[in-house]
Every structure is written in structure tokens, then in C-alpha cells.
Amino acid sequence: MKISDVIQSADWKTEKHAPVIEAPEKVKAGESFAVELSVGKEIAHPNTTEHHIRWIKLYFKSDNSKFVFEVAASEFNVHGESTDGANKGPVYAEPTTKAVIKLNGSGTLLATSYCNIHGLWESSQTITVE
Questions:
Q1: Residue 129's closest CA among 29, 23, 25, 21?
Q2: Which long-range contacts (CB under 8 A, 24 or more apart) does 84-92 make?
Q3: Does position 12 have pLDDT exceeding 90, yes or no?
Q4: Among the options 51, 88, 98, 102, which is catalytic?
Q5: 20 to 30 A Cα–Cα from 77, which one of 6, 38, 55, 113?
Q6: CA proximity to 17, closest of 53, 58, 59
Q7: Is 52 a catalytic residue?
Q8: How sure is the predictor about 11, in pLDDT bands with cuts at 50, 70 and 90?
Q9: Contact present, 31 and 102 (Cβ < 8 Å)
Q10: How far is CA 66 from CA 17, 59, 60, 95, 100, in A?
Q11: Which residue out of 36, 41, 61, 118 is catalytically annotated?
Q12: Catalytic pick from 16, 52, 57, 79?
């Protein structure tokens, strides 16, 4: 079995678990830009003690390389847990994060996310460097 056998893909506009990548389609070489990542943008994902997103990761695969680079990783560690019971806690983390990066060449941004019930999800977006 391979990791690709268990990771799921879908259009984030119709599937609440697929990570959303918001980044420009074109950037200039060496200039900083923001990549925003989230889960549940169009269809809200539950954010409860029982059902939540634990992490989102961002990778970059250059068109000129066979290797992928891990760019950023964000964990979401509170989901309403409390000694008073599930969903009675004072804080919930929303599965949203941002990375600011620079690129020297075109490639593909890839994002993965993990739902504690529905497993691994992925999405991608090509990006052109001018």
C-alpha cells in the first residue's frame, strides 16, 4: 500500500474536507507573496471535540525537480475540550493558516490536511514564476 492509496482529493467547493489553497496564479521571481490555506471555506467543516481538522501542510514541487519541499505546517490543537465535557471548552482552533514564501521557478503548490474522522485530503494549484 502507498500513501497515495489513502489520500483523498476533491474540489474544495463541493467537499468540506479538501484543503483550500489561495495564492496568486503568477508571481515574480524572488518576491514574497502569501499563500492562505484553510479547510471548509465553501462548506463549513465541523470544528468540535469529536470532529475536527488536526493539521494542514503546504508543499512545493518545482517544475525543474523531481523532489517536493515541505514549506509550512500548522497544527490545530484545541477543539472545545474541557473538564466539563466535550464542546464545553473555552477555545476552538479554526483550520486556517498563512505562509509567506518566495519562489525562483514555476511549479505546483500542494496542500494536505488531516480530519480526525475522515483522514487525509489533498489539493494542488500550479503557480507560474515570471
A1: 29
A2: 86/48, 86/49, 86/50, 87/48, 87/49, 87/50, 89/49, 92/47
A3: no
A4: 51
A5: 6
A6: 53
A7: no
A8: confident
A9: yes
A10: 27, 13, 11, 29, 23
A11: 118
A12: 16
Q: From the candidates 2, 22, 41, 115, give the one annotated as an active-site residue.
A: 115
Does the annotation count 115 as an active-site position?
A: yes
pLDDT tens for each residue of 66-86: 999 999 999 999 999 999 999
Three cell numbers, residue 96: 486556517
Residue-wise pLDDT for 100-119, tens only, equals 999 999 999 999 999 999 99
CATH of the domain at 13: 2.60.40.730
In the annotation, is 79 catalytic? no
> Average pLDDT for residues 51-80, to the nearest whole number?
97
Strands (DSSP E) contained in the chain are 8-9, 19-22, 26-27, 33-39, 53-62, 68-75, 96-101, 107-115, 119-129
Q: Give the mean pLDDT of the chain.
A: 96
Residue 29, C-alpha cell as written in the block:
521571481
> Can you give the residue range of the structural domain that contains 17?
3-129
Could you tell me whether strands 119-129 and 8-9 are parallel, antiparallel, or unpaired per DSSP bridges? parallel
Q: How many domains does the chain have?
A: 1
